[in-house]
Amino acid sequence: MHTFEVWAPIPSSVRLHVDGGLHPMRREDDGWWRADVDASPGTRYGYVLDDDDTVLPDPRSPRQPDGVHGPSQLHRIDPNGWTDHAWTGRQLAGSVLYELHIGTFTEEGTLDAALGRLDDLVALGIDFVELMPVNAFNGTRGWGYDGVLWYAVHEPYGGPDALQRFVDAAHGRGIGVALDVVYNHLGPSGNYLGRFGPYVSTNPGIWGESINLDGHGSGEVRRYIIDNALRWFDEFHIDALRLDATHALIDHTAEHVLEELSVETLRLSAHLRRPLSLIAESDLNDPRTVTPRSAGGYGLHAQWDDDVHHAIHAAVSGERQGYYGDFGSLECLARTLGHGFFHAGTFSSFRGRVHGRPLDVRRVPASSLLAYTCTHDQVGNRARGDRPGGYLDRGQLAVKAALVLTSPYTPMLFMGEEWGASTPFQYFTSHPEPELAAAVVEGRRREFGEHGWDSDDVPDPQDPETFRRSLLQWDERTEPEHARLLECYRQLLALRRTRAELTDPWLEHLQVTYDEDERWIVMYRGAIRVVCNLGGDPVTVPVGGSPILWWDEPVVNRTRSAVLVPGHSFVIVEFRTAA
How large is the C-alpha radius of gyration of the chain? Predict the structure, then answer.
């Protein structure tokens, strides 16, 4: 006997559809409907609302074997399928993350195939893999941010059992798993939640229907989100969640849903006796996100920091379009490296207003901010989806890597950057509905046109070739130019792991000097000095010490008080005072 239950306060009647038969359900005062029916794992089921004979999937469906429009399937994770009993988890501080998209990480595009590449990540020096969304969305291929059934795992990736195998294998190799989850909007195809209850907000969404977090009936909607997050942690042994676009979570209640989730996560972490982390994506530059609850914050563990990315990218590449307009100088780069946010109560020309708030560096460690040379957004949201390796030389890529991987922040790599992958990462979709497909194509080109890109350069997201162009080509790692960059990344990550100065998270201990005209910048990390030449010509930098790692070999003067750094290169020197 199985108890089926669904929250559906809107319809006046709900019937359970199980293997072709209909069963009445009883309504409780709280809007939940329940029915006890003989059913076993693998049973297909759904719900019929009022007089409409359409069988709708369960909003909390654990599996959708026939896609988001088909029936749900009873499924549970096999507790005997885990071998990670000795896994005690990983904290974010001191770790290095690696963001990947399951569909393009390997030729097969499945969780099981990605599992086969975990040893490569171990050899690289990765501590966490961060999976782009794997929740169920319509179509076979896409970025995953159009999810409509948040509890189910996308079947083309292998479904829930494959996710279990992936997490278990990662833990067996000492790697934690972070999962990207989207709670700020719903996708356009397969979204039936609004027929069950007041899941959708009246506030206009940026990318789709937004979520009702503070209106009538929002208590159960918030519970829908929190229960989903806890399920990934508990049932799937996930170690961290990356919360997509938290700035789009419109919540005017006294306890923001992020704070509520923080409280619930801490409670579960104590029960499971392993660290559980919450990472926000936010463009607000609001320190409350990562400020402890005891100090009036939401208590999340970390957030993405686009300002660090923008400051490094604009300074190295020279790009100034769009939101790069305020970035690019070495003064900006030094200020951002030293304070976490560049816009911290300062005017943003891109937004046309004052933006952000200063970070209290005595209260919030730099490890609470994720730094990166690129992400799926910073690559995929370029018109052609071209990676930095498509327009920067290998020395410039190495400089960007050195600045991120030796910074006080928590570093994150985007799949393939470690060898300068030649393949783009373009925006791709596979919407079966012709009208929706056409709207996505037109909207994408119009958006880039408004930002100054040539709309003719924007690939058709619906074209299967757009997806295929984005598949990583692992074989190219052995080519000399790629192999050299890969080895540089490995050495930088090994140095970070062995030197305590490089994981020191307190910005008060960081010093930065630079020369705007000669285009060099130096980060002082204890006895370590990270010297970067962003210009194309060699420069002499007045920094003493012995070189221990470099891109192009530097020349140290006789007194070891200065170093000649080749153009587009870095050198890491160690300074030791005489005993």
Answer: 25
Q: Is 251 helix (H, G, I), strand (E, B) or coil?
A: coil
Query: Looking at 130, 209, 259, 281, which residue is catalytic?
Result: 281
Residue 281 annotated among the catalytic residues of the structure: yes
Select from 457, 478, 497 the last residue of a domain.
497
Specify the pairing of strand 44-49 against strand 72-73.
antiparallel
Contact status, residue 191 vs residue 69, Cβ threshold 8 Å: no
Domain residues for 551?
Answer: 506-574
Q: Quick one: 181 and 50 in the same domain?
A: no
- Which three-class secondary structure state does DSSP give residue 151? strand
Residue 85 lies in a domain: no
Question: Which residue's entry shows tokens 């997050």?
Answer: 229
Q: What is the CATH number of the domain that holds 566?
A: 2.60.40.1180
276 and 315 co-located in one domain: yes
Q: Does 326 share its domain with 356? A: yes
In a domain, 22, yes or no: yes
Tokens representing 421 are 């992958």
Q: Does any domain span residue 124?
A: yes
537 is catalytic: no
Q: What strands lie across the sheet with 539-541, from one edge to the other?
A: 539-541, 563-565, 555-556
Instruction: Look at residue 193 and tell me if it is in a domain.
Output: yes
CATH number at residue 27: 2.60.40.10
- 244 shares a domain with 107: yes
Instruction: State the catalytic residue, choosing from 99, 209, 239, 244.
Output: 244
In this structure, the number of other CB atoms found within 10 A of the CB of residue 231 comes to 16
Q: Say yes or no: 417 and 448 in one domain.
A: no
pTM confidence score: 0.96
Position 22, amino acid = L
Q: Are residues 392 and 444 in the same domain?
A: no
Instruction: Return d(Cα 248, Cα 211) in angstroms, integer.
Output: 9
How would you write the pLDDT of the chain (579 residues) with one tens digit per residue? Answer: 899 999 999 999 999 999 889 999 999 999 999 999 999 999 999 999 999 999 999 999 999 999 999 999 999 999 999 999 999 999 999 999 999 999 999 999 999 999 999 999 999 999 999 999 999 999 999 999 999 999 999 999 999 999 999 999 999 999 999 999 999 999 989 999 999 999 998 777 666 788 999 999 999 999 999 999 999 999 999 999 999 999 999 999 999 999 999 999 999 999 999 999 999 999 999 999 999 999 999 999 999 999 999 999 999 999 999 899 999 999 999 999 999 999 999 999 999 999 999 999 989 999 999 999 999 999 998 989 999 999 999 999 999 999 999 999 999 999 999 999 999 999 999 988 888 888 877 777 777 766 666 777 789 999 999 999 999 999 999 999 999 999 999 999 999 999 999 999 999 999 999 999 999 999 999 999 999 999 999 999 999 999 999 999 999 998 889 999 999 999 999 997 654
Q: In the chain, how many domains are there?
A: 4
Check whether residue 520 and residue 408 sit in a common domain: no
Extract the tokens encoding 431: 């919407």
CATH number assigned to the domain comprising residue 333: 3.20.20.80
